[in-house]
Amino acid sequence: MGLKFGLYGSAGTKTCAGYPASQGNEVKDAQTLAAWGVDFWKYDNCYTPCQQGSVQTCGNPIGTTQTWMTTMRDALAKSGRPIYYNLCQWGRDNVWTWGTNVGNSWRMSVDNWNDWASVVRIASAAAGIAQYSAPGGFNDLDMLVSYLWKIVTY
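^ that's the sequence the OP posted. Answer follows.
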């Protein structure tokens, strides 16, 4: 049927839900993804190195998301399988300016908080950086689609 197989992980020590993540294991994890036949890898930004210790979402990181996302990009490139790479780091570090060199798509904002104000905020931010999207790499509005689908179906 042409369906693709996607998985989710994180650049930190744990995923946002608290499960083990890839920090320090990027090569091993990329090889595992390739062996499993994964087509899509959404790579989040939870529990990454932080001045405040181990926290889910760090406001004062040690390093940049570009560094962590590039480490996984390199591991995926060596895995022997083309895997679509989605950077989910909430628009930090002006990802739209470097994302196309690292992944296939990148989160350009924080989450949608299930209200119309979030839709307006995300869409307005996307409009200002549309020029950074092109074939092979684009700004990802993440949950915006699911929120709009709720509006249409209710």
